[in-house]
Amino acid sequence: MKVGLVIVSHSDKLAEGLCELAGQMAPDVAIIAAGGTDDGGIGTSLEKIQSAIAQAEGGAGVVVLADLGSAVMTTDMALEFLEPDQRELVRLADAPLVEGAVAAAVAAQTGQDLEAVVRDAEAAAASMAGAGQVSGAVPADAGPELDDIDQDDDGVHTASWELINPLGLHARPAAAVAQAMSDLDADITINGVDGKSVMMLMTLGLKAGETLTVSAHGPDAERAVEMLGLEVRNGFGEI
């Protein structure tokens, strides 16, 4: 069982589009849209939210993300109508809609529990706040040579590769990398950001032809570098 997600928006198209985006990164997660009014207008619907929560609940709980103030108010109302035992399995995340939904979807896909999915969704805001300080570019004289895996005296494994897939480290491969790295017992950074955070990886904006550099330390460090190198050299399955 995986935690389900509900996307509440004033716009039905926005909610459906975000479900489609997040679903690309979490194919095994129930992500249900609750957008617009009952007659298809701009606004929110108590009935739609209630129905979406019921559809998303598979036994592991549901995380709800909402776009604007009145959507939050309507969601709160929907939660009040739930039975106490049902209410315990539903959380309204205090998170930016798009970034929070993507982070929550990746966390749910990796099997995180309800509280962890909420935590990752809410941490997306902090990740985006620091995005302006992150640069995806790696200087030519920084790090090891391309495809040269190195280990220093402290057991830190490092390597660099040139991205060869046409779209670079966009949303789908970023999510795949974060999911793969999250299962490993190692501290992993990619171009200076947390290699287990899909949001931080996406802020790098790495394009085709640019260099991805990984640094890993811990029991699974060598495996992390090898796995990432294989993905990059295979173009994340896109070529």
Structure commentary:
With 239 residues, the protein is α/β, with parallel strands linked by helices. The chain contains nine helices and nine strands. It has helices at 12-25, 46-56, 69-80, 84-87, 97-109, 114-129, 171-182, 198-204, 221-233; strands at residues 4-9, 31-35, 62-66, 90-92, 150-151, 156-162, 187-190, 193-194, 211-217. The strands form two sheets. The chain has a five-stranded antiparallel β-sheet, with helices on one face. Strands 2-1-3-4 form a four-stranded parallel β-sheet, sandwiched between helices. Helix 1 (12-25) runs parallel beside helix 5 (97-109), helix 2 (46-56) crosses helix 3 (69-80) and helix 7 (171-182) packs across helix 8. The longest helix is centred in the middle third of the chain and has 16 residues, at 114-129. 42% of the residues are buried.
Provide the fold topology.
Layout: E1 4-9, H1 12-25, E2 31-35, H2 46-56, E3 62-66, H3 69-80, H4 84-87, E4 90-92, H5 97-109, H6 114-129, E5 150-151, E6 156-162, H7 171-182, E7 187-190, E8 193-194, H8 198-204, E9 211-217, H9 221-233
Helix pairs in contact: 1-5, 2-3, 5-6, 7-8
The tally of strands reads 9
CATH topology-level fold name of the largest domain = Rossmann fold
Average pLDDT for all residues: 88
Characterize the overall form. Answer: elongated
By secondary-structure content and strand pairing, the structural class works out as alpha/beta
CATH architecture of the largest domain: 3-Layer(aba) Sandwich
Low-confidence region ranges: 137-146
Strand content: 15-25%
Portion of residues in helices?
40-55%
Q: At the first level of CATH, what is the class of the largest domain? A: Alpha Beta
Give me the oligomer status: single chain
Strand order of the largest sheet: 5-6-9-7-8
Total of domains? 2
